[in-house]
Automatic annotation (TrEMBL):
GO MF term set: hydrolase activity, acting on glycosyl bonds; metal ion binding; pseudouridylate synthase activity
Keywords: Glycosidase, Hydrolase, Lyase, Manganese, Metal-binding
EC number: 3.2.-.-
A single GO cellular-component term on record: cytoplasm
Top EC class, one word: hydrolase
Domain of life of the organism encoding this protein: Bacteria
InterPro entries in UniProt: Indigdn_synthA-like (IPR022830), PsuG (IPR007342)
Name the UniProt record assigns to this protein: Indigoidine synthase A like protein
One Pfam family hit: Indigoidine_A
Name of encoding gene: yeiN_2
Length: 125
């Protein structure tokens, strides 16, 4: 599979993740399906936030990944996690082949684990 190239204006890496990458700290990529489809709100968002805190306590930086408003986000805010949790099944699953449509539509999309590898590669570039 070829490397995913993402235009900078379509990829938003949180300041926390940017700092970790710059300083060669460990970053843990987290898929967002569990937030939107794993449990009911508010347990889904609370669990995701707790998982991120557990990762921080272990010395790594969490990077929950989703597409919100047509922007691919690596490292979500608490508000973005809660948004995905509230939206639940209204958030659509996306894979690499769906990217042009997803970004153009400007909606909220969750991603699956395999797609996180593409995001992570794009962050290194």
């Amino acid at each position: 599979m070829s490397e995913l190239k993402i235009s900078p204006e379509l990829l938003q890496i949180s300041p926390e993740v940017q700092d970790a990458l710059k300083n060669k700290k460990p970053v843990v990529a987290l898929e967002s399906t569990i937030i939107s489809h794993g449990m009911p709100f508010p347990q889904n968002a609370q669990t995701a936030i707790e998982v991120e805190e557990t990762i921080r306590k272990q010395g790594a930086v969490p990077a929950t990944i989703a597409i919100i408003g047509g922007v691919m986000k690596v490292g979500l805010s608490k508000e973005e996690i809660e948004l995905l949790g509230r939206e639940g099944h209204n958030v659509t699953k996306v894979s690499r082949r769906d990217l042009p449509f997803v970004v153009a539509a400007g909606k909220k999309w969750r991603n699956h684990c395999g797609f996180n590898d593409d995001y992570c590669g794009a962050c290194r570039n």
